[in-house]
UniProtKB/TrEMBL annotation:
<dbReference type="InterPro" id="IPR007345">
    <property type="entry name" value="Polysacch_pyruvyl_Trfase"/>
</dbReference>
<dbReference type="Pfam" id="PF04230">
    <property type="entry name" value="PS_pyruv_trans"/>
</dbReference>
<feature type="domain" description="Polysaccharide pyruvyl transferase">
    <location>
        <begin position="34"/>
        <end position="291"/>
    </location>
</feature>
<keyword id="KW-0808">Transferase</keyword>
<protein>
    <submittedName>
        <fullName>Polysaccharide pyruvyl transferase family protein</fullName>
    </submittedName>
</protein>
<dbReference type="GO" id="GO:0016740">
    <property type="term" value="F:transferase activity"/>
</dbReference>
Length: 328
């Protein structure tokens, strides 16, 4: 399936759980430097808008409260932000997910498309206990192997495949001119597999994150949320400002990602959404897998349908692929 088919598939799946005119909450806004999670959030906004669903409450892990959510969305489903943090690797996000599910045992809760990663142990047992007690839980999983795993681990939940919601952002046009042969967008966290990615003498290496005036702007956009946390009595009054800041912060991170990726004629990356953004730009991108294999799984399922995205098994294959792409 191409981009249009990915979007249509996603809308069809979401329409079975969300009705036009419905008012919903979304928790776990990505209030951090990962541009890929910001792309997912903006894609979610696009899908909800196309479905005619009203998003009346958004909160990150630090700003979420039961009372605020109930005040703004007294009935209706609660959405949990999509991404790649459903499991025991990213404990803060998993704790947030489990807290919301436990806080609202009688509300419909929809986990938007995630990759799943659990090892046997106490974290999995706790997740199974909390999720297993919820009678109206839907888990949308963004790759088919993850769907099978989620059904095994959480048999009482409704589990369904749904493509990554970042594709809701749509095609990206940019007039920026490449300044390097290769832009390497490399992870610097626990999901990294390759210690180094060197594929061309004229390459620039970066990871997600704001610098310079963009970092200052990002801090300013986080200021209302910090004030809300320190003075909870003003949270309801400041919420409309905070919501606009959330959306602006997400756009800032995505535009910064586009700026970075545009600096290379070819992109090489071990970040899923660097590959997705490059694909939406129509820029040639060579994707390497990460530690939990989510890039390979999603490439196999549908990312391979984006023509400019190429998947390789390792650095040697990446070098070959880069040479071919630069020669075109």
């Amino acid at each position: 399936m191409g981009l249009q088919e990915i979007q249509d598939t996603t809308l069809n799946i979401l329409s079975t759980y969300l009705r036009p005119g419905e008012r919903v909450a979304l928790v776990d806004f990505p209030n951090h430097g990962n541009s890929g999670d910001s792309l997912i959030y903006l894609g979610e906004l696009m899908y909800l808008s196309r479905l005619g669903v009203h998003l009346d409450y958004v909160a990150d892990a630090s700003r979420y409260t039961v009372d605020d959510l109930r005040r703004r969305v007294p009935v209706g489903p609660i959405l949990i932000n999509g991404g790649g943090n459903f499991g025991d690797r990213w404990s803060v996000m998993q704790e947030m997910r489990e807290r919301v599910i436990a806080d609202f045992p009688d509300r419909r809760i929809i986990q938007l498309p995630q990759s799943i990663e659990f090892s046997a142990g106490p974290a999995l047992e706790q997740a199974q206990s909390i999720l297993g007690r919820h009678s109206k839980l839907t888990l949308l999983i963004r790759d088919h192997s993850g769907v099978r795993r989620a059904k095994e681990l959480f048999p009482s939940a409704t589990v369904e495949f749904c493509p990554d919601m970042a594709f809701g952002y749509g095609s990206i046009a940019t007039k920026r001119v490449a300044r390097h042969e290769v832009m390497v967008l490399k992870r610097r966290d626990s999901e990294s597999v390759e210690p180094d990615i060197f594929v061309d003498p004229d390459q620039r290496e970066e990871d997600w994150g704001l610098t310079g005036w963009r970092k200052v702007l990002g801090a300013a956009l986080r200021a209302p949320g910090a004030f809300m946390k320190r003075v909870p009595v003003l949270a309801n009054f400041l919420y409309p400002i905070q919501r606009r800041c959330y959306d602006a912060l997400a756009r800032l991170h995505v535009l910064n990602a586009i700026r970075l990726l545009a600096t290379g004629r070819v992109v090489v990356t071990d970040r899923l959404h660097a590959a997705v953004i490059s694909g939406l730009m129509g820029k040639p991108v060579v994707a390497l897998n990460n530690a939990n294999g989510k890039i390979g799984a999603i490439y196999s399922d549908y990312l391979s349908e984006i023509p400019s995205v190429h998947y390789v098994a390792g650095i040697d294959e990446a070098k070959i692929a880069v040479r071919k792409l630069l020669a075109q």
